[in-house]
Amino acid sequence: VLLVGVVMWMAGCTGEGSSQPLSTLELTTSTTAETSPESTTTTTTAPTTSTTADPEAAVLAALAGYNQAFSDAAAAPDPDHPDLDRYSADPLRTMLRELFEGYLREGKVGGGSYEYRVEAVTFSSQARVRVDQCGIDGNSVSGPNGEVLVPGNVQAFRYYSDLALGADGLWRVVEEGIIGSEDELCFLD
User: What's residue 93's pLDDT?
Assistant: First the structure.
């Protein structure tokens, strides 16, 4: 519902795409282990959002990072969460800051889960891409006394995220919106 609120705030568009595997909100990490008779070393690294190897993979890593940053910032709430700056840019970044500042003023917190499936990744240029998704936003918003103000969604909806490539080589979400209407549901299969 948190993401639905952000998505509903932004203007909607229409479009369809092909199915991709279900994604989760958490960033994946890669682990490599080097084994020798004397010791074992494990190194964990976060996914990159660089455009050097595979631009689509970098875009999807940035989108996953944004979704995690949004969830973390809502739970705190923290309008200045550093990962929001890393994974979002204006005009969306300003709107998120205002949203979470409102949470602080009103004693609200967010929490819950979010699942989505990428349906299409469409590059309009080397520095701009739209990702169409089907998602279930199970996030909720609670008031200062723990009362649920906005329950989490149980139905999936279609929405898009527009990402732009920054001068620093990182992809950031700049806009989101509902595809079609809220009544046009999709299914996570």
Answer: 97
| pTM of the shown model | 0.70
pLDDT tens for 18-36 read 333 333 333 222 223 333 3
Question: Which amino acid is present at 135?
Answer: G
**What is the number of alpha carbons within 13 Å of residue 92 lying toward its C-beta?**
27
Structure tokens, 150: 């906005």
DSSP string covering the chain: -HHHHHHHHSPPB--------EEESSPP-EEEEEE-SS-EEEEEEPPP--SSS-HHHHHHHHHHHHHHHHHHHHHTT-TT-HHHHHHB-TTHHHHHHHHHHHHHHHT-EEE--EEEEEEEEEEEETTEEEEEEEEEE--EEE-TTS-EEEPPP-SEEEEEEEEEE-TTS-EEEEEEEEBS-TT-EE---
The structure tokens 């940053």 sit at 69
Closest CA to 179 of 155, 156, 157, 159: 159
